[in-house]
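Quick check before the chapter quiz. The format below is the same one you will see on the exam, so make sure you can read both the input and the output lines.
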Amino acid sequence: MLQIEPNTLLADGGTSPASTLISIIFFLTFGGFGLILAINPRQIAERFLDLTPKMLFGFAEGVEPRIARFVGACAALLSLVGIILEIPVALRS
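Here is the expected output.
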């Protein structure tokens, strides 16, 4: 029996509406976390970096808050690009 996975291509070359919705939700969540790190309300970048050495190993102790803010801004920018690319796909399906 053939089952359709949520992210498989349809016959017309597009993706299923479920995978498009999941992608948009992922990009919104990813962008939200990146934007919070980039804006840095209540010194959240420092708090985030206080948690990382406990969970990660290696060079996590040498990272400064401005690097975390830059990474957050990049994540927010990439998620914005992803949302811009996914909205026309969602409108077509």
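If your answer matched, good. The longest helix spans residues 65-92.
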